[in-house]
Design goal:
76 residues; 4 helices
Length: 76
């Protein structure tokens, strides 16, 4: 099954089942990843905040990020 077919099938589920699926997928993302060093995570957050504050990077809204994600997996 292609990603687009899978996405279409998932989007047709009732809301409660989509929520359960989303939670399961989200929880699976960090499985197998090395535990993040908290100090490094804080440093990264500070660096990103400085980039946004200085204008070195331009932020995007949640809707813009979600649309870009949909476009990337071709389910828009």
């Amino acid at each position: 099954m292609s990603t687009q077919q899978l996405t279409s099938a998932a989007m047709s589920l009732p809301l409660s089942e989509r929520v359960s699926l989303a939670q399961a997928l989200w929880q699976s993302i960090d499985v197998g990843l090395a535990n993040a060093d908290e100090d490094q995570a804080v440093e990264e957050a500070i660096r990103r905040d400085q980039e946004l504050t200085s204008g070195a990077v331009i932020s995007r809204t949640h809707d813009e990020v979600m649309q870009a994600a949909r476009n990337a997996i071709e389910c828009a």
